[in-house]
Amino acid sequence: MRDDTRQGTRGARGGQDRPGQYAELGLPLVELVRRGAREILQRAIAAEVQVQLDEFAAVSLIDGRRALVRNGYLPTRAILITLGPVEVQVPKVRDRCGSGVKFDSALVPPYVRRSARVAAALPWPYLKGISGGDLGEALAVLVGEGAKGLSAAALGRPEAQWSEDYRGCTRRSLEGKAYALGLRSPAETLPRTSTSFSIPRQIGYDTRHSVKPNAKSVSMIERPFWRQRIESAWREAPIVWLSGVRRCGKTTLAQSLGPDQIAYVNCDLPIVEDMVRDPSLFFSGCTRPVVVFDEIHQLRDPARVLKIGADAFPQLKILATGSSTLAASKKFRDTLTGRKRQVQLTPVSWHELPAFQVPLLRRLFHGGLPPALLAESKQPALYREWLDSFFARDIQRLFGFRDINRFNTLFEYLLQQSGGQFEVTKTAGALGIARATVESHVRALEITHAIDLVRPFHGGGQNELVKQPKVYAFDTGFVSFARGWDPLRQEDLGVLWEHLVLEHLKAHFPDTPVHYWRDKQGREVDFVLAHRRDHVDAIECKWNPEALDGTALQVFRSFYPKGRNFLVSPLAAPGYTKRIGAQEVRVCTPSELVPCDGS
After folding, report:
1. Span 219-344: which CATH code?
2. Residue ranges of the domains in the chain?
3. Is residue 462 classed exposed, middle or buried when 0-12, 13-18 and 19+ CB atoms within 10 A define those classes?
4. Please, what is the Cα angle at 553 between 551 and 559, to 5 degrees?
5. What 3-state DSSP class applies to 39?
6. Angle 225-469-432 (CA atoms, 0-180°, nearest 5)?
7. CA–CA separation, 285 vs 62, rounded Å?
8. 334-356 pLDDT, tens digit each
9. Burial readout 471-489 (b: 16 or more C-beta within 10 A, e: otherwise)
């Protein structure tokens, strides 16, 4: 029989086994697990720091060097896990911008308390996580609550390494060896998502259960539609103002233009004010064709910087981002007329779902902000924290409102009423807030893209509504959160679907105001697009296309006979045309809602 502990035996990757490689198999199980725990913790920490470096990969200094780089290790330290102390090394990063960015491991906080679990009970759940390829489960056993702070990307890197180790293990010769432990491939243990309701697989997602997030980081997901919109806008003007609600992906989209193409400037950093104090000197030093000013409203005089860049350096393209329209800030008294085009980035829309690899019901339930959409489960804390951050960083800073409780009370009320008609006097009475306060707060919410007021379409007819708008919140995840819809039910889907169709219309018809139509008898058409005076498109939204009776559409067409009729449903793929009364109606998904010639 061969002695496989000697050098000369081929390893899993064609190399040779190390001397004494299997000697540790004679150790007690607890000691063996402790050694394995150290390796797993070290891998997870390395993955954490790499995720942070990836997030800042496109952030560079003016000379092109990366702003955030590795910078060695902290001294080796022992952390307490349930089996006792384990020594690990925590990497350091260097922030060359001087903005204070540092690496803090979720697994190695300053103080870690030892769990009260009995050490003898640990190996089984730990090994269960290892053999199942579930790093989160294994780390939860080792460090408890700290494991919850790890992102999907940080977990994905070590799990991928486990898969490679497993493949290597299966290729290794086991002749002459005796092992008692078996391993399963992580791929064999991935959970299968279940489907709610009887609907196509690409739509289904059971909101009662958490689903493992896509292993892709948000920065890896291409959004070509929006990049094309930006490129198209640059052909018309040197400055593109990219706006959208907080965390909808503006920074990631800007960085996706390519690190070799952009000079990225994070205006949240205090040093940037000094960097652009002399705009001509700053732009003269730019060696890349695109300059990105992220959160530019943080500068003291952003309009001056942009104006000099556009007028004196025509060879440069400028992308400026912010959470509001350009006119929201008092700093933009010069609105840069003729020098800019505006692009409003919406949350992840219908046509982007394949790229994000998420089903429709998940999009309706979690919403379209990428961090929420790709989260393992819907976490109320994420939505609450967003509301607080939105007030502090956008509303308070731009408009000077001081009462966060009053503002959030109104905002949450509008989230609950989203999709319905909005009346200022009724809202003020219901909340006990002055009418003038409601009006100013609603205006701020509109400017920051947190709500849309869809106004009625009318031709002056005495039987049509002419003033009262409908209010739509910016994201279905926040609507379901405010209404307590967890899990989603069949009756919830229609109104959320209507929101998603509106976002699609805003993205694909940016220069055409979206209206709705309603008469005094309550007959209503969900959305109306008036392309020309004599050409008006009518759009009805239904989860089930068989639910439309067509009465409102026929009344509407008696006033406005010319235009296209659409019945938009997620179940209408492929699309088809049917007749409702005297009207031909195209039944389709939002993918067919595109501008027609001349519109």
Report:
1. 3.40.50.300
2. 25-166+179-189, 219-344, 350-592
3. exposed
4. 115
5. helix
6. 115
7. 7
8. 668 889 999 999 999 999 999 99
9. bbbbbbbbbbbbbebeebe
Between these two residues, 334 and 497, which has the higher pLDDT value?
Answer: 497
Q: Residue 541 is encoded by which pair of tokens?
A: 């939204």
Taking residues 141-150, report their average pLDDT: 49
For 175-188, write each residue's pLDDT tens digit: 554 443 433 332 33
**Six-digit token string for 591:** 């993918």
Rounded to the nearest 10 degrees, the angle between the axes of helix 123-131 and helix 29-55 is 50
β-strand pairing of 340-344 with 262-266: unpaired
The two structure tokens encoding residue 312: 């004196």
The fold of the 350-592 domain, in CATH, is Arc Repressor Mutant, subunit A (1.10.10)
pTM of the model: 0.67
Residue 176: CB partners within 8 Å, gap ≥ 6? 1, 2, 3, 4
CA distance 200 to 203: 5
Secondary structure in 3-state letters for 336-347: CCCCEEEEECCC
pLDDT range class, residue 306, cuts 50, 70, 90: very high
